[in-house]
Amino acid sequence: MQNENPSPSSNIITLILCIAIIAVGVFYFIRRNDAITITNTLTATSTTTIAPTEVIPATTTETVATSGLIIVSDHTQICGLQIESPKPNSKITFPLTVTGTIDNTKATEGCRWTMFEGQAGIAQLYVDNAGLGWDPVGQVFIVAAEDWMTTKTKFKTTIEFNNKGVGFKSGTKFRIRFTEEDPSGMNKTQVVDLPVELQ
């Protein structure tokens, strides 16, 4: 019987392929399992880590930071974005028109909300899941900027939701989540939650 030893070049090729497969697996695992760190702004020392598939806990004020994501809940203003209507905790019906101002006059100081191609991000409705967290409902809506080429402009979006098929009761708590979209990917994405209540 003849002893066949693989050549050194085939060993190197096999080693390179194994390393490439492992690197792709590690990259996929890291991207898939990015965790969200929640820091309560009332007690800055309190942090919790949750998996991306979990819902964000229903607390009064929180800042959520993850690889490129900042969420400020229960506020109508974040650096660069101010929601003017409706006011927080207003009783609302659908369709609901939300208006506000985008002010990037302090963008050089890091205070900005990204606008691109007439769009100032997206908005989505979230519902309180019996105090267990916030679940998205309905579709995602584009937030339209009046003049996205200027540093200060008005924005508007209309949130439509057909409650007849779902049957949420009067007093059901919702959040409208505004998410900044930065096509450059160079800045942390900002998110603002506006708390409202079904009339």
Tell me what the structure shows.
This protein is mostly beta strands. It has one helix at residues 8-32, and strands spanning 36-39, 47-50, 63-66, 69-72, 77-78, 81-85, 90-92, 96-103, 119-128, 134-145, 152-159, 173-179, 189-198. Strands 1, 2, 3, 4, 5, 6, 7, 8, 9, 10, 11, 12 and 13 form a 13-stranded mixed β-sheet that branches. The radius of gyration is 23 Å and the shape is flat.
Total helical segments: 1
What's the story with the biggest beta sheet? 13 strands, mixed
Overall pLDDT confidence: 75
Strand content: 35-45%
Give the total of beta strands. Answer: 13
Q: What sequence of helices (H) and strands (E) makes up the elements?
A: HEEEEEEEEEEEEE
Q: Give the structural class.
A: mainly beta
Gyration radius over CA = 23 Å
Distance linking N and C termini: 86 Å
Q: Residue ranges: pLDDT <50 for 5 or more in a row?
A: 28-69
Morphology: flat
* Helical residue percent band: 10-25%
Any chance you could write out the topology, listing elements then pairs?
Layout: H1 8-32, E1 36-39, E2 47-50, E3 63-66, E4 69-72, E5 77-78, E6 81-85, E7 90-92, E8 96-103, E9 119-128, E10 134-145, E11 152-159, E12 173-179, E13 189-198
Parallel strand pairs: 4-13, 7-13
Antiparallel strand pairs: 1-2, 1-3, 3-4, 5-6, 6-8, 8-11, 9-10, 9-12, 10-11, 12-13
Question: Summarize this, please?
Answer:
The chain has one helix and 13 strands, in the order αβββββββββββββ. With 199 residues, the chain is mainly β.
